[in-house]
Write a structure and sequence with these properties.
This protein has eight helices and two strands, in the order H-E-E-H-H-H-H-H-H-H. The protein has 187 residues and is mainly α.
Length: 187
């Protein structure tokens, strides 16, 4: 009975406490990875996929959605290799941390900010208002360069981002959209 209780506190030879710590550490480090990937991959050589995300949506899917698949692959691999015993328990906890960050990203980015699934969520807390506004300021730039706010769960104050946009000469900043009637000359 005692041996059974001891085993239940371990997953693959790793204590539950250490596993949870590794999971939380991975979840936290994913924000740093997201910043690096967004700034230097998506707004770098991966712009050919990401530019669809800075343009008006033409359907439910966009080329940028491939990043969700690309970034899910390491999580899936770690979970498979960890649960098969090939790499050990650490891989399960790290894979789960990556997957958790992906789920948070999906919920915040695609559901709350971009409303790919219509909802009535309104940011009310200072934190949520700040990160929603930071992400929207990121999207006022339609080009590869000149964008601000690459992080996702940690964002500078909107005033700082606005100052950076102003200092950049507003290169690539989207102008006001024409009203449908004005654009077609039917007003």
């Amino acid at each position: 009975m005692l041996a059974k209780r001891r085993r239940s506190a371990y997953i693959g030879g790793m204590s539950l406490g250490l596993g949870i710590l590794l999971f939380l550490l991975t979840l936290a480090l994913m924000e740093g990875w997201a910043y690096v990937a967004h700034r230097w991959i998506m707004h770098g050589p991966g712009w050919f996929l990401h530019k669809s995300h800075h343009a008006p949506r033409t359907g439910f899917w966009e080329a940028n959605d491939w990043y969700f698949v690309i970034f899910a692959a390491p999580s899936i691999a770690l979970l498979v290799l960890g649960t098969s015993g090939t790499w050990g328990a650490w891989a399960i906890w790290v894979g789960a941390g990556i997957a958790a960050y992906g789920a948070i990203y999906l919920g915040f980015h695609d559901i709350i900010v971009h409303q790919r699934w219509p909802n009535r969520y309104v940011a009310r807390s200072a934190y949520m208002k700040r990160i929603v506004q930071a992400h929207r300021l990121h999207h006022v730039v339609e080009t590869k360069e000149g964008t601000v706010s690459f992080g996702f769960l940690i964002a500078p104050k909107p005033e700082v981002l606005k100052a950076r946009l102003k200092a950049s000469g507003r290169a690539g900043v989207r102008g006001p959209r024409e009203r449908a009637g004005a654009a077609s000359g039917t007003e």
